[in-house]
Amino acid sequence: MPTVEFQGKEFTIDEDGFIDDYSNWSSEWVTWVKEQEGIDELNDEHQKVITVLRDYYEKNGIAPMVRVLSKVTGFKLKHIYELFPSGPGKGACKMAGLPKPTGCV
Question: Has residue 48 been placed in a domain?
Fold first, then answer.
């Protein structure tokens, strides 16, 4: 598997750029993904999506479906795409340290 070194940390990633292990998630990882996604600055809404994704994953072992993510955060899907231009499955899940979703997220 390829690796990425960023701010003194090394991350092993899969072919789609997702972190190899949920437990390897860190603030450095979030910053690296933020830059890859072209997001200038993370705000409270970004943090809310990341927190919801991580909490849901810890409880259920999978990423939530889009409608669940939208309902729990209170954000419309369009707004989630504004926050994470590559979408909830690719950008948000990647930033939250979740594995690549197998279905639609």
Answer: yes
Q: Which of 79, 97, 104, 105 is catalytic?
A: 104
Read off the CATH number of the domain in which 55 is found. 1.10.10.370
Say if 103 falls within a structural domain.
no
Domain of residue 85 covers: 3-95
Is 100 domain-assigned?
Answer: no
42-90-22-96 Cα dihedral, nearest 10 degrees: 20
Cβ contacts of 43 within 8 Å, gap of 6 or more = none
Catalytic (active site) residue 93: no
Give tens-digit pLDDT for 4-63: 999 989 999 998 999 999 999 999 999 999 999 999 999 999 999 999 999 999 999 999
Give me the DSSP letters along 71-92: HHHT--HHHHHHHSTTHIIIII
- The whole-model pTM stands at 0.92
